[in-house]
Amino acid sequence: MNEELSLRDVRLQKLARMRELGHDPYLVERFDITHSATEMLEEFEDGKQASFAGRVVSYRLMGKAGFAHISDGDGKIQGYFRKDDLGDVGWELYNLLDLGDHVGVTGYLFVTKTGEKSIHIQNLTPLNKCLQSLPLGKEKDGHIFYGLTDIDLRYRHRHLDLICNPEARKALIQRMKMTTAVRRFMDDRGYLEVETPMLQMEAGGAAARPFLTRYNAYDLDVKLRISLELYLKRIICGDIPKVYEIGRVFRNEGVSNRHSPEFTMFEFYEAYSNLEDIMLLVEELFIRIATEVFGSTKVHISSDPDGEVAEHEVSETGVVLDFGKPWARLDLLTSIEELAGIKREELQDLDSARKAMERVGLPIEKENNLGGIIEKLLEKFVEPTLIQPTFLIGYPIETSPLAKKDPSNPRMTRRFEGYVRGRELCNAFSEINDPIDQRERFEQQVAERAKGDDEAHPLDEEFLFALEGGMPPCGGCGIGIDRMAMLLTGADHIREVLLFPTMRPTSSGVRSEETEDSV
C-alpha cells in the first residue's frame, strides 16, 4: 500500500472512531456562528462568549491541553483546548482532528501568556473530516513556507489555492468584487442589464475564430459567440437606449499569459452618445471600481509592468495607478510619430508604410494592409509607454469595421482604446448606424477572409436588417473583466484571476502526489 493511501486510511479510521463516539461530522447540517475570525480579533473583548466555525490549519497537542488555529477563509484565530473543559469525549474528538478538518467551537475570548488573542474552547463539534493532506505550509513572521507553490496544481485544483495561498485568494475575491462594482455602477446610471445568445449563426463583433458546435434539435451548425456587440446594438435599434451585458465569450485562439479562449466580457451601449461621452463614463467607472474594491482611487501594484515607468509613479509597493484624475488623451498617429519616428505622411499608403516599418526593424512579410501595420507599430512602440490610465484615439478603418469614420480623415475611425500598465483595457467606438456604410465594411471584411484571413468579420444580414430599421447615434465600449482584474491586482498571468482556467488534461488523473503535513 502506498503512502498516500495509508495516510488516507488513517483519516478514515479517525472518522470511524468519531462515529463510534456519536459525533459523525457528516450528519451535522448547520452550526450557529456569532463572530468571524476577523471580528473576534478586531473587536476583541476579554471573556466575551463566541461561537465560530472553520478549518483547522495548525494543530499542536501538549499533554492534556492543545492548540489549533481555525480559519474561516478570510481570517484565523487560535483555539485553546483542554481536557478538563471538553470532557473525555470532547478531548478524544480533539485528538482525532487532522489539518483540514472543519470544526465548530464555542467558548470565550482570552489572551494567552504569549500575548496571542485566542478563544478558550468549551465545546467542540466536528463538521467534516478532511481525507486528503493539504499543502498548508508553515507560517513564520507573516511569511508562509513549504506551502502550495506548484503553478500547475494551483490552477488545476483551485480549492487548494483558495485554502493555502492568501494572496491568490485575495486577488480572486477582488476580481469578483470588480464585477459587482461594475453592475452597481451601470444600474445606478439607468442602464438595463440584458442577456444575449451564446449560440449564434454568425459570430461577429470582433476579429477572432469561433468555436463550432451543433444544435441537434434544429439539425443546425452554430458558433459560440466571440463578442456581445451585435446583439446589444440590435437592442438599441429596438429603442432601449442604455444596455449592458456581462457574460462569457469564446475565441478559438492561442493561450498566453494575457489570453484565455474562454473569458468574461463587459459591454455597454448608450443611444445619443458619442466617443467623448464614453470616455467620461469609463473614467467614472474606474473611480467607482478603485474606490469600492481597493478603498482609494490610487491603486498600488506590487509587480512592475513591462514598460517605461516614471519615477513619480513608483512607490515602495511598486507602481501607483491614479484613477482619480482624467485619463490622458493621445492621438494614435501622433504617438507613433513621437515614439517610432514615423511621420503620419508615411502611413497614408501601404508601400510607404511597409518601408517605414522595415526601417524601424519590424518584419513586413505578413503585413498586407495599412491598418495592420499601424497597429503593429502601436504594439511595439506605443503600448509599453502607457502606464497611467490613457485613452489612445483614432484607429485605422481596416481594423475597425464597426466604428464610424473620422470626418476629418476617412482612413481613420472614431475609436479609442484604453490602456493601463502598457496593456489594452477597453475598446470603444462611436458606432456605425449607417447600414450602407456598415454593409460596405462587412463586404471588405469578406474580401479579406477570401484572401485567407480567417479572423475577418463575417457579413451579418440579421444585424444589417436591424440597422436598416434605424439605430440612433450610439456610443459603445467593451472591457474584458479578466484583463481588468489582471491590471488592477498586478497579476502577471490571466489564470491568476480565473477561478477555473482550462488546463490541458493529465494522464495521471485529478490527484497529485500528497504528503502528510508535519505537526
Write up this protein:
- The chain is 32% helix and 27% strand.
- Strand 6 and strand 7 form a beta hairpin.
- 37% of the residues are buried.
- The C terminus is likely disordered.
Describe this protein with a few key phrases.
519 residues, alpha+beta, nine-stranded mixed beta sheet, five-stranded mixed barrel, 14 helices, 32% helix
Runs with pLDDT <50, length 5+? Answer: 305-316, 511-519
Q: How far do the termini sit from each other?
A: 23 Å
Q: Give the proportion of residues in helices.
A: 25-40%
Number of strands: 22
Average pLDDT reading: 91
Instruction: Output the radius of gyration.
Output: 28 Å
Number of helices: 14
Shape: elongated
Strand content: 25-35%
* Largest beta-sheet details: 9 strands, mixed
Say what oligomer this is.
single chain
Secondary structure class reads alpha+beta
Could you give a quick summary of the protein structure above?
With 519 residues, this protein is α+β, with helices and mostly antiparallel strands. It is 32% helix and 27% strand. The chain has 14 helices and 22 strands.
